Amino acid sequence: MKTFVRHTILFLLAATLFTWLMLWLLGGTGLLRNVTYQLGHDDRLYTKVHEADTAGPVDVLFLGSSHAYRTFDPRIFAQHGLRTFNLGSSNQTPMQTEVLLHRLLDSLNPRLVVFEVHPDIIQHDGVEAAIYQLSNVPPSWDMIPMALRTRNMRVVATAAYALPHNLLSPVYKHFKEPKDQYVAGGFVEHEPAHFSPTPQPPTEINPLPEQLSALHRCTRYLANRQVPYILLEVPDTKCLLSSYTNLTVFQKEMSNYGKFYFKILPTLDDSLHYYDESHLNQTGAELYCEYLCDSIIIPIISAL
Fold first, then answer.
1. In angstroms, what CA-CA distances link 257 with 117, 215, 252?
2. Lowest-confidence segment of 34-43, 48-57, 196-205 by average pLDDT
3. CATH number for the domain including 272?
4. What does the pLDDT look like over 166-208, one tens digit per residue?
5. Partner of 139 for a Cys bridge, out of 129, 163, 214, 237, CB 3.0 to 4.6 A?
6. Residue 135 covered by a domain
7. Is the pLDDT reported for residue 270 higher than 70?
8. How many whole angstroms separate alpha carbon 117 and alpha carbon 222?
């Protein structure tokens, strides 16, 4: 019996070592079906998280999806005397926001945190954003529960490769991400483009319970740290907004987590100020950031 137990333990140790070796050798090659390692991305997440380590303190920290990193331009806020940082990333759900908050809140030390919340993102499973985050953000213990909460084998396998790889590999440590269209402070400017408005099919917004739980943990974390925060929905095109069958229900749900802001600006035109149905182009982003400064951000900061 003792021999059987000893052999079993040795086999498990050897199998574990072999698995980690295969992950280390093949994880970044694309040959392992369940490992999706994507170092570098259009959202420039690798660049911004490394920049954020030394960017604080800031007046405002923005968090959210592409609706955040394509909208909140630090240059506009700087013209109003505000120092900001944009930690938005592609399809970032509250699960990934939680990791970024825990990692960078102290170094950025913001006076105000702005959560960008979007009807589409709150019903995402977070798989795509988890893979981007695991591939590009320096490893931390918070990434393990984040990966497990997706309940997706591809995310878990990617985490098993990415966490030790990014901790030890010189390839990760010395990676140089393209800086085209990247603006210091976390903004990524889109090339000039205009949207051709088209009718959108009726869509019901169904927030995932796990995303709402993650959003609650984020807001509770900030409340415990006594950091002021707001939730903000960047307006989609009017043709997309009109397709949501329960938009007011979603917005009421968001208001349960903190002060929530949403306004359709009459100056924003679907064909002039958007590059697709839900993203502002640069002209639209500048108009919206001016509105934020004058009507929301500066009044809040002045009252702190």
1. 11, 8, 10
2. 34-43
3. 3.40.50.1110
4. 988 888 988 998 887 899 988 888 888 888 888 889 999 999 9
5. 163
6. no
7. yes
8. 16
* Tokens describing residue 242: 């009109």
98 near 52, Cβ under 8 Å?
Answer: no
H-helix segments, 193-274: 209-224, 238-241, 247-255
For residue 137, being part of any structural domain is answered with no
Closest to 52 in 3D by CA, of 94, 96, 86: 86
Domain count, the chain: 1
Structure tokens at 297: 């951000």
Task: Give the chain's end-to-end CA distance (angstroms, integer).
Answer: 69
Residues in the chain: 304
* Structural domain boundaries enclosing 66: 38-124+177-303
In a domain, 296, yes or no: yes
Residue 28 pLDDT class (50, 70, 90 cuts) = low
The verdict on residue 251 lying in a domain is yes
